[in-house]
Design brief:
This protein is 50% helix and 24% strand. It is of the alpha+beta class. It has one domain (2-122): SCP2 sterol-binding domain (Nonspecific Lipid-transfer Protein, Chain A, 2-Layer Sandwich), CATH 3.30.1050.10. Strands 3-2-1-4-5 form a five-stranded mixed sheet.
Length: 123
């Protein structure tokens, strides 16, 4: 099951980084906490290598937590807008230094604006 979660995290983060390429070179360690029924799984995500390990990630700059069932659904085919909505409505939570969180938020917003402008030009 941990290998399955590790693979899902890798695929999800790779898809997210494909949508927001400006974040690809960012050096960051993220602690991911997936809460299940009576169980909590901890993972360590290291960027830009996209290395995922089952570990508590004591050196994480950012911590992300969400229910495991919610993550499984999001991992299937969630796009940038889906993740923004999940964090906005509290289904997923991120904690860490404000500078990191604001930087990521600004980069994601800029990419979202580019995507909207690109779609508007195509129509």
């Amino acid at each position: 099951m941990a290998d399955d979660a590790r693979t899902l995290i890798e695929k999800t983060v790779a898809r997210f980084l494909d949508e927001v390429p400006a974040l690809k070179p960012m050096k960051l360690v993220v602690g991911i906490e997936l809460r299940g029924r009576g169980d909590v799984q901890h993972f360590r995500l290291k960027l830009p290598e996209l290395e995922v390990r089952k570990d508590v990630a004591a050196d994480a700059q950012i911590r992300v937590e969400m229910p495991r069932a919610f993550f499984n659904e999001m991992a299937k085919d969630a796009r940038l807008a889906d993740w923004r909505e999940a964090f906005m409505y509290g289904q997923a939570k991120a904690t860490g230094p404000t500078q990191y969180l604001q930087l990521i938020e600004r980069v994601v917003e800029k990419q979202d604006e580019r995507n909207r402008a690109r779609r508007a030009r195509q129509h």
